[in-house]
Structures are given as structure tokens and as C-alpha cells.
Amino acid sequence: MLSRGERFIKSLNDGRSVLLEGERIEGLASHPAFKGTLETITRLFNMLDDPNEKENVGYKLPGRKSYVHNSFLVPYTLEGLQKRSMAFHYWSKETHGMMSRLSDYARSMITGWYAARKELGKLDPHFESKITAYYTEARDQDLFLTTAIVDPQIDRSSGLEDTRVAQRFLHIVRETNDGIILRGAKMIATGAPYTHDFIISSFLEFKPEQAKHAHVLIVPANSRGLHIVCRESFADRRKNDHILSSRYEEMDSVLFFDDVFVPWERVLLHDNAEKVLALRANKTANSLAFHQNIVRYVAKLEFVTGITFAVAEAIGVNEYLHIQEKLGELLIQIDTIKALVIASEVQAKLDESGVLVPELSYIHTARNIGTRFYPRALEILQQIGGGGFVQVPSKFEDFFGVNSNHMHHYFEGKTVSAEKKVQLFKLAWDLIGSPLGSRHELYERFYAGDPVRAYAKQYCESDQTSFTEPIWRLLRESSK
Ligand SMILES: Cc1cc2nc3c(=O)[nH]c(=O)nc-3n(C[C@H](O)[C@H](O)[C@H](O)COP(=O)(O)OP(=O)(O)OC[C@H]3O[C@@H](n4cnc5c(N)ncnc54)[C@H](O)[C@@H]3O)c2cc1C
Fold first, then answer.
1. Centroid of ligand 1 to alpha carbon of 170 (angstroms)
2. Residue 203's pLDDT is what?
3. How far does CA 286 lie from the centroid of its chain?
4. 398 domain residue, yes or no
5. What residue stretches are annotated with the HpaB/PvcC/4-BUDH C-terminal domain (predicted)?
6. Parent domain of 312
7. Does residue 301 belong to any structural domain of this protein?
8. In the chain, how many domains are there?
9. What CATH number should be reported for the domain holding residue 390?
């Protein structure tokens, strides 16, 4: 019998169109660009059937034998919320926070919409039945999901009044009795080549007359006419030299919709800018999904910190005051995000649907400050490692080649053998200097949206008077 992970891999053989280097990929699982990543995901999926791990990542439905992932758990109590948190923690620990779109984020969005289905049913009379059917299917079939929300970056200064731009944004070209036909593109969908379904929505605030661009849809990856266009692969099969790139390459893709049919049961909302915005702003779904982001982020900061500590020790610089100051800064980063995770959970409140949702304001703060923490953490690692990152042989196997003795002699560190030191610095380079590493820095800056507007939004949506009123009061009192 196939394991859960193997079933996942097999299910990807469904006729989807994945394009890489000008070719359509056949046999995703054996392709060098995806093999290592899919092996990682297989391991994560199998955790749900492992007697030692399934309680950490999953829960059992009444009357069922097998476990489902906790991202599908609707939290009505603190215990439920913490179970969700634990699953995010275990999956991200397992991948050192380096895989951020393992579908637990997108699954949480679906879970949130399902949990708030009665409230959201006010947006559309069919919403409740559609989301219930889809949530149940996604949960029971272990569906891997990802989101594609942003419209293509063509000319951000032009509005949709510019038809040259508008025609390339995703839009409905035709409606039939059975569903809608879509044309246009969406960027970016991480994990797209190996996802089952895309959650398609929009970031833009469309005007009523631009309604043909405003939808929330579930689109199967193997839909006819849908092309998943991959960026260059950063996967590197040299496991000893690129520990991260060999196993954590989450491919990013653009989606081309070439008259793609989507049945009505997968059209959650369509042609309505206001309702799409209301759904996108839904607090239940956003809290549950964004909560995953910040739990995952802790694991990543801990990973960078671990590497940086090890580098500092390995070359004997950890005793210098300014190095200790930087190492302390990394710990402060971790504690800051951890504290915000805890605060969001402890201050969770029941919403209108009776769901215990983590406090969104702390989550927004963690996501926003995180855009600045990660680049700074990498900067600290660079400052501490100096030229050590390039003071390594071309291949780990060089240790066993012609110059073996010299290698062991010259590459030794203060506390570690030459082999271990080279391995460590290669790992660190994979984080700060490889294509995968650079992509991660970009990811942490932008995954939650444009950081500039996200920071500004925190101000715009704040209760500003609660800050300014005491000032005006003080001024009034002092001028009496
Ligand atoms: C590695 C990576 C993976 C991603 N994965 C996913 C994914 O899986 N799913 C998904 O949905 N999205 C994903 N994203 C997309 C992400 O949501 C967007 O990158 C983000 O929302 C910013 O949009 P943009 O990239 O189009 O930048 P733009 O909006 O084009 O911004 C570019 C620059 O222009 C400025 N700018 C643009 N327009 C304005 C304006 N109107 N006012 C002021 N300033 C403006 C911005 O401040 C920024 O400095 C991913 C992004 C990255 C980098």
C-alpha cells in the first residue's frame, strides 16, 4: 500500500501543464528541479500516519481512523488553537522554516472561510454550501493548496482603465450554465507545480466597473488551458554542498489562463469588487492563515541564529563584544516574534461565528517587522562570517581528492574539524549567497504584500485618537 506521501506524489500525474526551460515537464517527481522538494513534502505528509508524530500535526475526525492535518481544525477553544500552532511548528521545524508554502497557509484560509461560512453566506447565497463542500474535500483528500492573488506586474502606475493592462489581468471572458471561462495571468504562486488547487483572488481594490476582474475561485492545477510557468530552478542536487537548495526549493510560478473553465461550484464569488474585498478582509480566515506565517517564521529565525552562532564559534570570534552584541540581536528577534505569537494566541477572541481567532494586530506586527528582521539577520551572518563563506573548496568531495591533506590542514576551525567547518560555511552560503538564499530574502520582504503599504496600513487602521488625545489633554492642562 502506498504511503500518504506517495499517494500525494502519484496524484500529481494528472495532466497538468508545468513549463520549465521551454519544455513541458513530464514526471514531476523524478525531475531534478522538483525531486528533493517532493521528497521533503512526502516526509511531511507521512508524519500524519507516524504513531510518534501524528498527534503533533494532526487530529482524528469522529468515526475515522486516519488523521487529518491540524490546519483544517476549526479552533473553538485555546486548546484547538494551540493544536493548530503546534502543527505549524512541527512542519516548519522539520524544514527549518525554509518552506513557507506547504499548503498549511492556504488550507487555513479555506478553514477560516468554512468556519465563518454563516457570516460570509451573507455575501452570496451559495457561498456556504460551496465552501462546506470544498473544505470537506480538501481536508479528506489531503489536498495541497496554494494561493495566487497578485495581478501581473506590467505597469503599476496605470489603472485598469488602460485596456492593454486590463486584458492581461485575470478576467471572465464568458459565462455558461456550468461555469465561467477565464483568461489572463496571475503572479506569483509558490509551490504551484505540485499543488492540487489554486485559491485565486485579488489584491487590488477594484472599482464596481472593473468587476470582471474581481473573483474568488478554486482552480484545479490540471485545468485545461492553465499553464504553470516556472522561474529558473534553484534546486541543486549536490546535497553536501547545497543542503538547503537540494531539499527546500519551493518553486515560484506565474499562471497563464488560456480560456480555463471553472465550474460554478468552485466559483466562490465573481464579478463583484465589493464582496471580494469583504471576503479578503475576513478576520476569521486572515487570523487563522496569517497565524501560520508567524509560527513558521520563528523556526526560520531560529535556524539562521543557529547557523550564525555555529559560525561565530567555529572561527573563534564569539568572544568579541561586537560579535556578541550581534548574536544577542538575533535572540531578540526570535523572542520578539515568539512573544507576538504567544500574545496573538493568549489574546485570541471568539468571533461572530464562535471561532477562537488569534489577535490579528499582533500577527500584523510580527509579519511587518519580520520583513525587516530577516534581511538584518542575514546581514549579521555575513558580518560575522566575513570571507569565510568563500574560503571553501569547490566541492565537499575535494576533501577526499588529490589535496586531501592540505584541505584538512588549512580549512580547520577553532572548535571544529576542517570537514565540519566547510560543511557549515557551505550551509551558511546556501542561506545568504545561493540563488535559493537570495530568493528567500526577497520572499521574507514581500510574501505578505508590499511592506511599505503594509506598514502604512497599520497606521491608517489604528485608533489614532487614543494616542493623540492624551497629548492634547496634556497641552490643555498645561496651558490652563
Ligand atoms: C518569492 C515570492 C513568493 C511569493 N509567493 C506568493 C504566493 O505564493 N502567492 C501569492 O499570492 N503571492 C505571492 N507572492 C507575491 C507577493 O504577494 C507580492 O510580491 C507582493 O504582494 C508585492 O506585490 P508585487 O510583487 O507585485 O510588487 P509591486 O506591487 O509591483 O511593488 C513594487 C514596488 O513598487 C511600489 N508600488 C507599487 N505600486 C504602488 C502603489 N500603488 N503605491 C505605492 N507604491 C507602490 C511598492 O512599494 C514596491 O516598492 C510572492 C512574492 C515573492 C517575492
1. 16
2. 82
3. 13
4. yes
5. 285-469
6. 281-462
7. yes
8. 1
9. 1.20.140.10
